[in-house]
User: What shape does this take?
Amino acid sequence: MIDTLRRAGFKDENVLEAMQKVPRHYFLEKAFEEWAYQNVAFPIGAAQTISQPLTVAIQTSLLEVRPGQKVLEVGTGSGYQACILATLGAKVYTIERQSALFGKTDTLLREIGFGMIRTFLGDGYAGLPRFAPFDHILVTAGATAFPAQLAEQLAVGGHLVIPIGEGDTQMMWRYTRATDGTFTGEQFGRFKFVPFLKGTE
Assistant: This one.
């Protein structure tokens, strides 16, 4: 898998090293285990997916995580992305809106040695204001607009990485918060994500 990412042009060795340390097959149904290390997305239940490894690598790299930083992940899903962030040394807070998926992933993370990741069932659009500010925020679902309430929980100098767009694909954005509280956005290509929805189920 790592060689595949390198051949695709991905060059962030810190992220590749972290991905090498986290076995992806832990996060897939047994029916998909033999394909776990291909650059493919897979269903994980509750109409959600585990993103393809290249997407995980790119989003992680855009955050520019340093050890000890607080990172809020919106969309826990299988827990794979959260584990990559934790392996990079981040203090990870992650929110999932699907209660069944939340319970399954929360148990899995503890079983595989990632109990340090703080998991929450809740509305990702609301974020976790009681733990803010966060050094970085990562959204792993496709939004239709800039999430202002969530962005207010980002520290000055921090990055918000989020796919935004209408339809089947979204543009990957990285917003950086300036000292005056404003946000500067950069685009990094088109990707395909499940929708970023409000509320919990």
Summary: The domain at 2-191 is CATH 3.40.50.150 (Rossmann fold). The mean pLDDT is 89. The CA atoms of residues 153 and 187 lie 21 Å apart.
